[in-house]
Please model this.
Amino acid sequence: MAQVLRPLSELFPNTAHPQILVGLAEPDDAAVCRIDENRAIISTADFFPPVVDDPYDFGAIAAANALSDVYAMGGRPLMAINLVAWPDDLDKALLAEILRGGADKVKESGAVIAGGHSISDAEPKYGLSVTGEVKPGEIIQKSGALPGDQLILSKALGAGVITTALKRGIAAPEQVEIAVRSMSRLSQTAATLAQEHQVSAMTDITGFGLIGHGLEMARLSGVDFELDFDQIRFLPGAESFARQGVFPGGMDRNLEYFAQWVGEASPLPEFARGLIYDPQTSGGLLMAVSDERAGALLSALQSQGEAAFALGQVIEGSGRILVRAEAT
Model:
């Protein structure tokens, strides 16, 4: 995608549009346009096919995923536009449930559904275009991580594994329920606490997995990340399914592309390697925060019900990740 967008970034450089604070020139989770000294608008969009069977849950997950990009920039959602692709021969009652799930999640965020657009398509898809706001001086980008920072993730990993197990009919109902609860949880509280504890950089973990999105942060910050696999938390059932080779196709694509920038202190087992490349849907916020503030931030996240954990540190480097593991 970066290669595809490069000609556009050359055609529309931020320097030619000084009100664009974050745009094509420095890929991030959303675009940001300054309105005045105290206000900036965040704009993003995301949609995808169903990842779970229940239409309401799918709508809630898709909405939470789209809203997450605004939170990853340190912002607050204002309004959302429904984006729908729907087969002509599929029951519209299912679509109504998807939209209801999305609307409930948008309402929970404090934003409003202000419109929408739909097209006919062979495969159903749903998501949102989201507009948010942030103070220009409070934008959190991927590019601010500093050597000595600690890395914290606000949600457990493994969503791609669990949804794949669901599609294969081998996931237990309680495993699916916990995964749905995680994917549909807004990153609102995590983002607020990130602002309060002055994180250096932040992004949300979605389709490129922990490694892919971590590399984006490391590369844009001009540093390396050192991850401790043994500290990473996974959704119930994810490790067991991973040992059985239950992964979505996106894991292989992530591994094939991103592995060239990843080192392993000792070779990881295949299941462990797959888990850190596993594509996530509505994953958590990956935060880089100073060592002095890391403990307080982690405690605050956990006290607010976030499944947050520390998983590594930022070191000097040039945009690579080193993964350490002992008890795998």
Notes: Residues 55-72 form the longest helix (18 residues). The chain has a mean pLDDT of 95.
